[in-house]
Amino acid sequence: MAAAAFQAARRTHCLQWCIPAVLVLAAGVAGNAQNPPKPPAERVEVPPPPFSDGIYPCSNCHGSMKPDRTRRSLEAMHTDIVLKHDEEHRWCLDCHDADNRDVLHLASGERVPFEESYRLCGQCHGEKLRDWRAGVHGRRTGNWNGSKGYLLCAHCHNPHQPRFRAIAPKPAPHPPTRPNESAGARKTGEDRNEKTHGN
Ligand code: HEC
Ligand code: HEC
Ligand code: HEC
Ligand code: HEC
User: Fold this and answer.
1) From the alpha carbon of 155, which atom of ligand 4 is closest?
2) Separation of 160 CA from ligand 1 center, angstroms?
3) Domains in the chain: boundaries
């Protein structure tokens, strides 16, 4: 009798603890298998990556070429690409996959399609990636509780030379002249706004 009760107690105990424990373990394993876990939830829709005409798929040429890992300036092709992006520490194949040129890869080696290049950028610019997802940096469109569209980092930043070039300021606008305006009549901040926004 006592043994049976004990067994029953153990069983309910097990129902309470063993099953959740197994589930937690299983979730842990699944999480590790997907290494590193994909960034969360909402679907990220992006326009096609901004490739030059005819350059993609890269494997049209690279499929039959041996990857060349030596750091050098390119002469036979891509002569327009000059790295100005932490270039002392980095070279092409840190971002582009050596064996499958049609994709990028993360520091972990995980391959990432060009449509998800923001994940690569986010490895070093985590704060910007967070802001970008939140719609604070870059451009986000869509529904507040539904799918959202984003511009890729690469739509605005050249990944090889991401710094924006300074834009020369335009000359100040001419203030509009009003025929009937008496001197001193509208000397408020409004006046200044009207001059810059006006016309
Ligand atoms: C910081 C990571 C990074 C490095 C380093 C890098 N690239 Fe890229 N590269 C990218 C990304 C991201 C794109 C995709 C741009 C897009 O979405 O169109 C790209 C695009 C390209 C393209 C397509 C350009 C076009 O005109 O459409 C070529 C070719 C290329 N890279 C070659 C190179 C070469 C050669 C080097 C080394 C000299 C290099 N990349 C270094 C990230 C990198
Ligand atoms: C028309 C053929 C052609 C296409 C298309 C092409 N490449 Fe290349 N690529 C070359 C050649 C040729 C070289 C070697 C250039 C040299 O050594 O001066 C090269 C070199 C590179 C290198 C330097 C490393 C290496 O293995 O030599 C990278 C990185 C690279 N290409 C990336 C890309 C990416 C990314 C794309 C697609 C977005 C692309 N290429 C499309 C012909 C091409
Ligand atoms: C491996 C780390 C790494 C990755 C990956 C990386 N960056 Fe950078 N990035 C840096 C470092 C370090 C600097 C600062 C040094 C420099 O500007 O050369 C920088 C600078 C920048 C800047 C500021 C330039 C300036 O001086 O104003 C921009 C914009 C930028 N990166 C965008 C990108 C984008 C877009 C991607 C993805 C295509 C990317 N980065 C991927 C490390 C990285
Ligand atoms: C809609 C265009 C757009 C998109 C998309 C975009 N950026 Fe930017 N980014 C800018 C502009 C504009 C600046 C400011 C340039 C300046 O002040 O010189 C900037 C600045 C930066 C800087 C330098 C900031 C600093 O504090 O100096 C980094 C790094 C950067 N962006 C990374 C990213 C990354 C990573 C992504 C993608 C996750 C991204 N950006 C997406 C337009 C964009």
Assistant:
1) 5
2) 6
3) 45-64+97-166
Which of 53, 60, 61, 81 has the most ligand 2 atoms within 8 A of CB, as the residue to mutate?
Answer: 61
Can you say how many angstroms the Cα of residue 154 is from the centroid of all Cα atoms in its chain?
8
What one-character DSSP code corresponds to residue 49?
A: P
Confidence of residue 22 (pLDDT cuts 50, 70, 90): very low
**Can you tell me which residue has the tokens 């690569």?**
120
Q: Are 182 and 106 in contact (CB under 8 A)?
A: no
Peptide bond into 57 cis (omega under 30): yes
Is this model's pTM higher than 0.70 or not? yes
Residue nearest to atom 1 of ligand 2 (CA): 61
Please report where in the chains the tokens 């299983």 appear, as a residue: 26
Percent of the chain at pLDDT exceeding 70? 69
Task: Decide if pLDDT at 154 tops 90.
Answer: yes
